[in-house]
Automatic annotation (TrEMBL):
The organism of origin for this protein: Nicotiana attenuata (Coyote tobacco)
UniProt key word GTP-binding: no
Protein name in the entry: Pentatricopeptide repeat-containing protein, mitochondrial
Domain of life: Eukaryota
Keywords per UniProt: Repeat
Gene designation: PCMP-E15
Keyword Iron-sulfur: no
Amino acid sequence: MLKQFVAPVKLKHFFNFCKSAIKLQTELPFQLKNYSLLPRVDYTCNQDVVRSNRIISKLSKEGQIDEAKKLFDKMPEPDVVSWTAMISGYIRCGKIDQARELFDRTDAKRDVVTWTAMLAAYARTNRILEAELLFNEMPEKNIVSWNSMIDGYARNGGLDKGLELFWKMEERNVVSWNMVIAGLARHGQMHEAKLLFDQMPEKNVVSWTTMISGLSRNGKVDEARVLFDWMPERNVVSWNAMITGYMQNSRLNEAFELFEMMPEKTVSSWNTIIMGFILNGELTGARILFDKMRQRDVVSWTTMINGYVLEGKSEEALRNFCDMQMDGEVKPNEGTFVSVLGACSDLAGLSEGMQIHQVISKTIYQENEMVISALINMYSKCGDVATARKIFDDDLRGQRDLISWNVMIAAYSHHGCGREAINLFNEMLQMGFKPNDVTYVGLLAACSHSGLVEEGLKYFDELSRDDSMKLREDHYTCLVDLCGRAGRLKEALEVIERLPSTESAFVWGALLAGCNVHGDSETGKLAAMKLLGIDTKSSGTYLSLLKLSASNGKWKEAAKLRTQMKDIGLKKQPGCSWIEVGNRVHVFLVGDESHYETEVIHSLLRNLHMKMKKTGCAPTDDFAMEEGCLII
């Protein structure tokens, strides 16, 4: 099996998280499982060594890598299987640098499997230069080594090098062909992929499935269906790939019809169709399917939880997490924790987030970078930026990645701590991390929220000069917001006029907000007209324009805008706020008098307003009355 590298099928979670922060995707079988972690025959005569090797492998799989290392260090004469098991254990736990340290020891025993394990680890983690150096140093290569290097090139933008290596191979197996076809499909080169597919001396079910998946991702779902119908044999993964293809192209009915036709449905099949319903906005249908499942795994629960988060139903997401915990048959994984922490962030539910943090602290995911980043984000959005920074400093020390730096910079931005964000950015540079476009969004927003105009302009200039990064709409929005808040509205307008496309509601919205702050009715009217051209039924735009007209004494214009809103049928969305007191959440809407302590609350607000007037903090009477109504 090792010689031919017939890897077992691995179905990865079909999912995508944001923006935060974890992803569950469909991984087709052509995406290789770690070769070094495949079972291998241990021919050691010493039975003590054999037992130790098995325990090391078991501990590594359970995430107890430190315990595995203690046992390894006690072994008087570890053999090559021992060394490979220990190195593979570090790789499995994401500790690639520690694996390399062990690999480079002068007393290390290595064979082609050990070398390939290290090579594949670098390739999978986008460290392609290190993988390339290791590949060239290998004293002996087998077909798996070549396949791992080709896969590394294909995954990291070096498809041409991968193809060059492919044609240099003296011996190729079906996996070699499948990898190259998958790489071409991933880069949208379906014509070349089809030519290679037709040249294959032999095809297996993975070859067909790879082509079906590639065609579907590139919008050729009907061609994919033709191939699916021609397949000499199909497995569950093939059916799932075709169903996924229909869903990726918003053809939910055909996906569901195919799902109903499946001769055998596995849990992964149910997960695939449920995810399809969620991605196509059919959360109710997804729930019906979820309830019909006889057996659920962690992907089923996580998919449903994340579906509720994406639809803004975070309370329901938390209920589902509680149901999962009560069910007891399935334990949450890193994806589950990231999703449910996102729900806590949306609700500003600090107490719920802290409870989930306690659950995480009793699992192997307490040191997972994605989970820690989600915790930092949760504490930040719930107002506890100090705890967020403490987690960043203590829990991530020595294993920070770019995502965690970006999350912490965004946390400071969210709280208007511009100087702290800049200091953290400088610390990140000193540690050798290269910022990406997301880093600069957080940094520019932090400068904008803190009034650090010159610093923000400096960082935008740095970004625009960096050829490795492309300026996004988010960067321009931050720049316009920065200038708008500082009253430099003409500069903000000039920035927008230089944009290749000015059809951006976010950019014009940032300018309109600045005009409202500084009372520039002329520029504000221009921004509002542009916004209404993009979205004619935006009540927020009408209200901003109305407020701008009223603040400049243009009462007739304000009255006209109110009439237009009434004619169109636009209403301001009622303001909503909530507060947790004594383990109970109290929700308030504008004009809502249903709360059992409404009279006491109103009395308190009136007293507060009177005190504000006496100290000179209250706004004008008309505005105060309006705001008072809004608060009540």
